[in-house]
Amino acid sequence: MNEGTLIGSLVLAVVIAVLIGFFIRRLVTGWRHRIERQIEAIGNLPALPDTVGPVLTGPTPGLYVGSTIAPHWNDKVAAAALGFRSKAVLTRYPEGIMLQRSGTGPIWIPDESIVAVRGERAMAGKALTHEGIVAIRWKLPSGTEIDTGFRADDRRETNKWVKEDV
């Protein structure tokens, strides 16, 4: 390789690295602005109860898909650490639904806040060929309605959640 080709290759590599850094910075900035816009609408999540009754449904292992502002299935919530996918376990109690996520804190959905539990094909950027996502629509203490999505590891478990009369 001659010296001119080497210098040209190095310049091109630097330009590509700068462009990648620029786009990553723009993504992070956009995510921060989304959080700032949503903080007031989302507010604080409900506190975990001290005690709960017997398990009604579950525990069901799977994937926390994310939460979206209802009724827009692709308007992902970034505030209150609701924007990150993670492995999770979904459990129903008489007092509400517990979504225990690995890596972040649990989400408690009080029974009186639940509007609907239904099956969906797509939510928060996750699309399936069948209705395999359990979408729980609930009202936050701030008054905003959100959909929280969960995909069970075993598809048969989804039917137990969707057929449940909430």
From TrEMBL:
Q: Which residues cross the membrane?
A: 6-24
> What is any Pfam family matched here?
bPH_11
- Ranges for domain PH come to 42-164
Entry keywords, A to Z:
Membrane, Transmembrane, Transmembrane helix
Official protein name in the record: Transporter
